[in-house]
Specification:
Elements: H1 3-29, H2 33-56, E1 66-67, E2 70-71, H3 72-98
Antiparallel strand pairs: 1-2
Amino acid sequence: MDTGQLIYILSRLILGGLASFLAIMLWARTRDTAWMLMVMGTIAIYGETIYTIVNLFGVEGSSFLNIGAMPLLSILLHNFPMLFFIAAFAVMVTRKYRRR
């Protein structure tokens, strides 16, 4: 592992950990559906980061559920954050148009 990869991994872990920590702090203070979905998306991004780094180190997960050559878990973890963000934005848009 070279210095560039080490800096990449550490920056992803530190910044993702900070974002997740602050998201969890916000989660404890709010009951708004849109913000809850944003928090879950942020935490899902950090989970995907951890999964990617573990795979980078060569630890393979269970590969019995594959879609083609891709593990199902990898596909889900890469798409969950965007699904949470889409749901959060949809809730916000619905609120804005309902008030008119």
